[in-house]
Each structure stands twice: as structure tokens, then as C-alpha cells.
Amino acid sequence: MRATAAAWLWEAIGSPSDPLTKELSMLFLGCASSRVVAGGLGAGAISAAMLFGGIGPAWADPGDPMPPPPNCTAADLAGVSAGVAAATSAYLFTHPDVNDYFTSLKGQPREDIRDQLQQYMDANPAVHADLQGIRQPLTDFRNRCQ
Question: What whole-number distance in Å separates Cα of residue 117 and Cα of residue 94?
């Protein structure tokens, strides 16, 4: 907004390098009474720029963006993530065969893991459904807070 007000001010009185502006400045600044007049004109121009300079952007700008939905802070994300991690840990400890499978994936190339994981989930739909249910709070958070 400051740039807009300054641009409007220089359009109204001329740029500082404009010969007419320099001449008027020298004329107004020649004596004490002229300084008062120049100060008054300057103050008036600045006041007008401040008053009217923001009108265009105010009409063009729809306003502040919508505030984020409640419970979408970094702390909320950490809390949801911690809950999902704790539930996943509990699930893996209570399902040793699933825990063993995920542990066996360690150290393999990412592309191989993706394919193997898809095959495992297709072969074990109950495990897939359980893990999706555990992750659901994180999915809900992401959908709500995007």
C-alpha cells in the first residue's frame, strides 16, 4: 500500500526529477512563509494519498484469506501423527506376522518395497483394512487442513 500511495503522490505532484517540481520547490522553499505553504501542500498531498491510495486495492482485494480451520496447527498434526504411530506400534506388536513382514522390508530399494507392499496388501485385505483404519485420523487431518 505504501508503494501505491507513493506512486499516487508522485503522479499528483510530479516526479522529483521533473523540472516543474524542482522549480516549484525552489519557489516555495525560498522564504519562511513559503515553507509553511509547502508543508501544508505536502501534508495535504500525503493525507490525500493515504486516504485515497488504499481505495483501489481495497476494492480489488477480496480481503484476508480464510483463516485455517480449527485444530490444524503444527501441534495438532504432531498429536494426530503421534496417535497414529502409537496405534500402528500397538497393532504391529499384537500381530507378529505383520510386524515380521514390515521388518523384512528394511534395506530394500524403495521401488521393490512399493511393489511388495501392494502384493502383501492385496493378499491380506484384513491387514490392509486394519492399517487404513489406524491411519484414518491422519487422512482426515490432511483432508480438513489442506
Answer: 20
Based on the number of CB atoms within 10 Å of its own CB, is 123 exposed (0-12), middle (13-18) or buried (19 or more)?
A: exposed
Using CA atoms, how far apart are residues 49 and 110, in angstroms rounded to an integer? 60
pLDDT tens track for 7-60: 333 344 344 444 444 443 443 334 444 444 445 545 555 655 555 555 555 555
Segment 64-114, tens digit of pLDDT:
777 778 889 999 999 999 999 999 999 999 999 999 999 999 999 998 999
Domain boundaries, the chain: 2-60, 74-145
- Return the CATH architecture of domain 74-145: Up-down Bundle (1.20)
Residue 97 has what DSSP assignment? H
Closest CA to 120 of 134, 100, 138: 100
The model's pTM is 0.53
Q: Positive or negative CA dihedral for 52, 57, 60, 64?
A: negative
